[in-house]
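Our platform keeps sequence and structure together, in a single record for each protein. Nothing more is needed to write down the fold, since each code stands for a local backbone conformation. An entry from our holdings is shown next, in its original layout:
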Amino acid sequence: MKALVSLLILIAIAAAAKSEEEWWSSMSLYQIYPRSFKDSNGDGVGDLKGIIDNLEHLVDSKVTAFWISPIYPSPGVDMGYDISNFIDIDPLFGTLNDFRSLLEKAHRMGLKVLMDFVPNHSSDQHEWFQKSIKNIPPYNNYYIWANGTVKADGTRAPPTNWVSVFGGPAWTWNDERQAYYLHQFAPQQPDLNYRYEPLKDEMKNVYRFWLDRGVDGFRVDAVNHVFETESLQDEPLSGNTNDPNNYGYLNHIYTKDQPECYELIQEWRKLLDEYKANGGEERVMILEAYTDINLTMKYYESGGSFPFNFGFIQRLNANSSPADVKVVIDEWMTRMPEGHIANWVIGNHDQKRVASRYGAERAQGITALLLLLPGVLITYNGDEIGMPNNYVTWEEGKDPQGCNAGRDGFEAASRDPFRTPFLWDDTTSAGFSTNLNTWLPVNPDYKTLNLKVQKEAEDSHFKFYQALAELRSWPTAQKGDLQTYVISDDILAISRILEDHRSIYFVLNFGDQIRVEDLTQKIVNVPEELIIYRASVNSGLPNGSTINPKNAQIPARGAVVYVAPDMSKRFEVKLL
């Protein structure tokens, strides 16, 4: 028994060491929403050349890798997530040659590039689906078709009561095929059939196509929707709504989180590892699955590099307490399997922006907190400058989730407000485009809220982000022990401690009043003096100044980052 325990310990240590060696284990990952990043040709839509021309911003932001939301050919029903060709670039964004140029420049600059891989469905305009409609082998089995049922009055009905994520039935009748097809999202996004081996092989070839061109990994979209139960059973009612067209109407026990999802990830990991075995670096595979934490953690052990951690999006907001935040952090760190890497998502294209979820002032502190937690940080473009949601009218809307909710439900359901153009400067369309008419409206506050203004200011949200991103490169921030503390009803703190390195302490005030706290009462082994590395914008606390931790002043709705003194040499704060 002792020998077995010793072996398990050695395996865990080896796994941890392996993870620490991977290039992505402490990366800062930046999500680019290409339609809204930078328009290079004046058509009002962002494109690949716009990204190429502005990679310097990622370097300035201390980013080490970025992933691009879908840039494949698409009718655009779901803003690119309805793909009509998995192995090409949509002319809206550029060409394969442009993508090659993007890869080459990014790699020269030391940036890794990840693609958005969308496995659950294709566009109904994809050649595969058009041939599937015609019952042409092997494409006739590439999608999920069913005959449906006939009611007593002779009318036709779908085979199950399943509801689409975007609302309405998840089955649509096709007259030519004389059958229903499944779509867990829009009707124009038919679900692929992963129980059919030729389709699985086809999608593996999609991976190979992009890997052969040098991409460094993938963000895998909606992976827990990829399989449904074969028996096509009705799902039970949730009791949360009486609207049968609302996705929340059902408890989705047959259309999500099926065991086969994890098995498919294992197959994909083997494929990605082939490229590492041939002398390359490990390809990262990041998994998007909105599900409970037990099912989320299983993706670590199925072969994913990591599943997205949506705790700061799904479970926390402006009304959360320090105790709530501590629970979210501690739960992920304790539930994560041994030897794996944590990650922290600030925002993405499907969720309200961090500045709108937490408030503009608190957003700085929440962002700083995530920058100082161990593992991988994921930042959505625009959050580094504190961009808020932008108002989008029903007439301006593009998002099917919002449009399908009708005029009255649009504002609550639409994701368009989180996807509006990046605010570069105070010129036409905030420097995003030379065109006054952009695909979604530019935030009207762009004259004062933009990257250029923040770079030129003495202190700003972006400079605060930069400074914390640089601190994140310290060995203590990357490898130090993490402790979380609730100092009081309004005050959260964390410490990062690494032997023979300078300690880092972070304190966040959720309250509306300045607080003076004795940090030594809760935080273990705090030095007699601390140095302010950085404080929230407009806090009035001078960077580089020394304080007594027994009388630490924490600004209202703000944060302070302290470092232990370095007795061997004078400490200087680098103002970025």
The longest strand covers residues 491-497. Residues 2-117+202-221+260-464 form a domain with the TIM Barrel fold (CATH 3.20.20.80). The chain has two domains: 2-117+202-221+260-464, 480-563. The longest helix spans residues 2-21.
